[in-house]
């Protein structure tokens, strides 16, 4: 769909997001840092791409009959995005979430009509045990209601949605020497990496908070970077998907979120700031004349109720 066309549905408004070059935070003697602003999607998150692809794929194969209930466990934007897509496509939706995640996200899920099961957390922290308990609630809903579980951690349809993100980056950026992003389900990194690796020697770096550095140290831990680091190596992060991984300071990312808003006008949440922090480190390392690309996963509007912005 061209930018001048009238969309027949809000689903057609997913994607087509801007890619911008950072100025003030970027190292003067380092690579250019480009950020894909996925907050421009209809619900303010790149998860709109994934949700649309997963529901489309299941409907196309006949796995998801008209009117059948959908279920997923989610700590962040996946829930809002699935609720948005299910509202348009006419599927009732049950979401299992937790008080560890921002109240704005839970309210957004409800605003689109989703039914929520809220699992209590350990003092607001995201722990590996929390996801185990959330998954148990999903199993109960599948058994009780015959719901279709979208299974975002294993669902390869997500890669279809994120491959489009990769193609957009290639169309917008003159070159992509390094691509980096934090992983939760790893669907975005895997979908983009497949496209970038397919056309050249782009280095793909998986990022994670140092407070739960499973990819780099094998050690999970509690953290507060929503949408990332679930305590496992995600199944979609298959061998060859990324070239290396690195841990990024959660505190540095939280501080950077404020700087990005005030110095650059880029208004993002914790995981996006972690992505940019990783990209800035890589830009210093690879040096001038190169290009590092990362993704701002969503908008800072989703984090105003917390303490991110003071």
Automatic annotation (TrEMBL):
Q: Which InterPro entries match?
A: Cys_Synth/Cystath_Beta-Synth, TrpB-like_PALP, TrpB-like_PALP_sf
Domain Tryptophan synthase beta chain-like PALP positions:
11-297
Q: Which UniProt keywords apply?
A: Pyridoxal phosphate
Q: Which cofactor does it need?
A: pyridoxal 5'-phosphate
A single BP term in Gene Ontology:
alpha-amino acid metabolic process
Q: Which CDD domains match?
A: CBS_like (cd01561)
Q: Which residues form a coiled coil?
A: none
A Pfam family? PALP
Q: What is this protein called?
A: Cysteine synthase A
Q: Which organism is it from?
A: Actinomycetospora succinea
Q: What is the lineage of its organism?
A: Bacteria, Bacillati, Actinomycetota, Actinomycetes, Pseudonocardiales
């Amino acid at each position: 769909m061209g930018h001048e066309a009238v969309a027949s549905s809000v689903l057609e408004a997913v994607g087509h997001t801007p890619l911008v070059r950072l100025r003030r935070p970027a190292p003067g003697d380092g690579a250019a840092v480009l950020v894909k602003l996925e907050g421009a999607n209809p619900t303010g998150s790149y998860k709109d791409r994934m949700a649309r692809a997963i529901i489309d794929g299941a409907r196309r194969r006949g796995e998801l009959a008209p009117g059948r209930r959908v279920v997923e466990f989610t700590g962040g934007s996946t829930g809002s995005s699935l609720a948005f897509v299910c509202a348009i496509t006419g599927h009732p939706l049950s979401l299992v979430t937790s008080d560890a995640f921002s109240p704005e996200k839970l309210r957004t899920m409800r605003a689109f009509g989703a039914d929520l099961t809220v699992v209590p957390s350990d003092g607001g922290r995201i722990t590996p045990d929390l996801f185990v308990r959330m998954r148990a609630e999903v199993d109960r809903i599948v058994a009780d209601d015959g719901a279709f579980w979208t299974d975002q951690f294993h669902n390869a349809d997500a890669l279809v949605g994120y491959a489009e993100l990769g193609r957009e980056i290639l169309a917008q950026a003159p070159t992509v020497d390094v691509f980096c992003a934090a992983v939760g389900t790893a669907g975005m990194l895997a979908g983009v990496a497949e496209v970038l690796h397919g056309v050249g020697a782009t280095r793909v770096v998986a990022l994670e908070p140092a407070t739960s550095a499973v990819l780099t140290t094998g050690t999970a831990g509690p953290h507060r970077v929503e949408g990332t680091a679930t305590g496992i190596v995600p199944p979609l992060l298959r061998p060859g998907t990324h070239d290396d991984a690195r841990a990024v300071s959660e505190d540095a990312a939280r501080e950077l979120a404020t700087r990005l808003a005030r110095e650059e006008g880029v208004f993002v949440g914790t995981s996006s700031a972690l992505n940019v922090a990783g990209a800035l480190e890589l830009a210093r390392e690879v040096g001038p004349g190169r290009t590092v690309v990362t993704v701002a996963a969503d908008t800072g509007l989703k984090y105003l109720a917390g303490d991110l912005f003071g």
